[in-house]
Amino acid sequence: MNSVTTEIGGDRATAADAAPAALRDVMARFATGVTVLSTGGDHLHGMTANAFTSVSLDPPSVLCCVGHSAVMHEAITAAGHFGVSIMEAAQEDVVRFFADKKRPLGPAQFAQIEWAPGPRTGAPLLTGALAWLECDLSAAHSFGDHSIFVGQVVEARLGSGQDGLLFYDGAFQRAVARSA
């Protein structure tokens, strides 16, 4: 079997190099926004996620990718909806908390966090975020070790924050808002 070889910028790469570690290294060079996904009700849970993007304006839809082994995977599947808090640069501590697999689960994980239930889904929306979305789950596609959850936006609101939180090259960064 022949391997496809390319040369880009003087470096040689082969299709065989696209192993998980190589993909992780390459994707570290792609800056992403940082969100906290949440579900409410009987499935109260939160999780930091940067695999998130808009899908469509008509109907208004977004997607998030969640690992099959994550508690959030079952929470979104069972709840049938999810909330999204788009995080402000000053909220790195909150993002780290929801990324910590050792944090308490269920209602206890929200005990020290300021939040309000979303008016449409009841999903916790984190105070101080740049913006919030509430979504009804409209599709789920299993691929590899993750599911791609597509949510139809049923509520969208802006916060008063300015600077966004980014994840780039394995570290959190600040995206500075343009001056008005």
Automatic annotation (TrEMBL):
Keywords noted in UniProt: Oxidoreductase
SUPFAM superfamilies from the UniProt entry: FMN-binding split barrel (SSF50475)
Domain Flavin reductase like positions: 27-174
Enzyme nomenclature, EC number: 1.-.-.-
Enzyme superclass (EC): oxidoreductase
GO function term, MF aspect, one: oxidoreductase activity
Gene3D superfamilies cross-referenced by the UniProt entry: Electron Transport, Fmn-binding Protein, Chain A (2.30.110.10)
Alphabetized Pfam families for the sequence: Flavin_Reduct
Name under which the protein is recorded: Flavin reductase family protein
Protein species of origin: Streptomyces monticola
